[in-house]
Amino acid sequence: EPEVTQTPSHQVTQMGQEVILRCVPISNHLYFYWYRQILGQKVEFLVSFYNNEISEKSEIFDDQFSVERPDGSNFTLKIRSTKLEDSAMYFCASRGIGTGGRETQYFGPGTRLLVL
Amino acid sequence: KQEVTQIPAALSVPEGENLVLNCSFTDSAIYNLQWFRQDPGKGLTSLLLIQSSQREQTSGRLNASLDKSSGRSTLYIAASQPGDSATYLCAVDTGRRALTFGSGTRLQVQP
Question: Are strands B19-25 and B72-77 parallel, antiparallel or unpaired?
Answer without folding.
Answer: antiparallel
